[in-house]
Design a protein that fits this description.
- The protein has 353 residues and is an alpha/beta fold.
- The chain has two domains: 249 residues, Thiamin diphosphate (ThDP)-binding fold, Pyr/PP domains (Rossmann fold), CATH 3.40.50; 36 residues, no CATH class.
- The protein contains twelve helices and eleven strands.
- The strands form two sheets. It has an eight-stranded mixed beta sheet, sandwiched between helices. Strands 8-9-10 form a three-stranded antiparallel beta sheet.
- Helix 3 packs across helix 11, helix 4 packs across helix 5 and helix 6 runs antiparallel to helix 10.
- The longest helix has 15 residues.
- The chain is globular and about 75 Å long.
- The chain starts with 35 loop residues before the first helix and ends in a 9-residue tail after the last helix.
């Protein structure tokens, strides 16, 4: 089995493709103003840059607004079962190493009914790129609180305010030992495109949390970090091998590590350079990346954006295929009908009746 630098494929397309080639003939049916439109356009725009034939690309989704994604991309796709997209995608990419497989999912689909499937895909390090659309609400089923809705949020299913403590998807992914973890905002197409490219060349599970506005049931959830007058004071742009900073010019702050190990933003002019926190997404130990993910809060005072972690570890499907090949080779070639019969009639079978 051969592997190129491009994620999950050994068959680059000989023909130059364009965004139009990845645009299906289906009518895009999301609510006016939905952030999903921007994500779709960004993905369609970056796919040609991978140099992969459309027949080697698959989008798998579960259930939800985001899960309409496979209809709109001119590749193979599957609109699957609620929360089970990572499990189905795992089977696809394990059976066929030539496929580049994306999972399109939402905060409800991925983190509620699909929580177990998501964390085990990341733990196993399956060759998947998971796009997690996070609008902090259930959209398709009309406005119930989701696993990422804020504490106290009033919704149709929590009229007195949600009492659930929300998930932090980045912290969850890092805790599950995901090898590529990133966050982007749907309105920042340049940053989202850069992260998509990095994720697509990563071998293993790549999870990208994408903040996405739902104009109908949770409009304005991310206004504090979309407002250009506030962005520079709130958005923490994570850049490899650079100090973690926020703000500009005289108001710039830098993240430092206190003697007790805690992290704190202080005025850069007053900070000790020896205490600077230098972002290292390539560190084998994910503890600093996890600490950065905890800078976030419901008030969005400091919101980290970018790649939190990007490390190398054997991919599940590569190891499974190598194991199968090794077993066949040790048996002297391809399995025969006699081998199958011996397996079926082994000591662990019994007759009922």
């Amino acid at each position: 089995m051969t592997t190129t630098a491009v994620n999950r494929t050994s068959a680059p397309t000989p023909v130059a493709l364009t965004k139009k080639d990845f645009t299906s003939d289906q009518e895009v049916r999301w609510c006016p103003g939905c952030g999903d439109y921007v994500i779709l356009a960004t993905v369609q725009g970056f796919l040609p840059e991978l140099g992969i034939a459309r027949e080697n690309v698959v989008f798998v989704s579960g259930i939800g607004c985001s899960s309409r994604f496979p209809y709109y991309v001119q590749t193979y796709g599957m609109h699957s079962i609620h929360g089970r997209a990572p499990a189905i995608a795992t089977g696809l990419v394990t059976a066929n190493p030539d496929l580049t497989v994306f999972v399109a999912t939402g905060d409800g689909d991925a983190l509620s009914i699909g929580g177990n499937h998501l964390i085990h895909a990341m733990r196993r390090n399956v060759n998947l790129t998971i796009l997690l659309f996070n609008n902090q609400i259930y959209g398709l089923t009309k406005g119930q609180y989701s696993p990422t809705s804020r504490l106290g949020q009033v919704t149709k299913s929590s009229p007195y305010g949600s009492v659930d403590t929300p998930f932090n998807p980045i912290s969850l992914a890092l805790g599950a030992e995901a090898t590529f973890v990133a966050r982007a905002m749907e309105s920042d197409r340049a940053e989202l495109t850069a992260i998509l490219k990095a994720a697509a060349t990563h071998r293993g599970t790549a999870l990208i949390e994408i903040y996405q506005n739902c104009p109908i049931f949770n409009d304005g959830a991310f206004d504090a970090i979309k407002d250009r007058s506030q962005q520079q004071a709130r958005l923490v742009r994570l850049r490899a091998d650079e100090p973690v900073r926020v703000g500009v010019e005289d108001s710039r702050q830098v993240l430092v590590r206190r003697p007790d190990g805690s992290l704190e933003f202080v005025a850069e002019a007053e900070a000790d350079p020896a205490a600077y926190v230098i972002h290292d997404p390539y560190a084998a130990d994910a503890s600093q990346a996890f600490a950065l993910s905890r800078l976030d809060s419901a008030e969005m005072t400091h919101v980290p954006m970018g790649i939190f972690r990007q490390v190398s570890r054997p991919a599940y499907d590569d190891v499974v295929r190598a194991q199968v090949d090794g077993a066949v080779e040790s048996a002297g070639g391809a399995a025969s009908d006699a081998d199958l019969a011996e397996l079926l009639r082994g000591r662990d079978t019994w007759t009922v009746g």
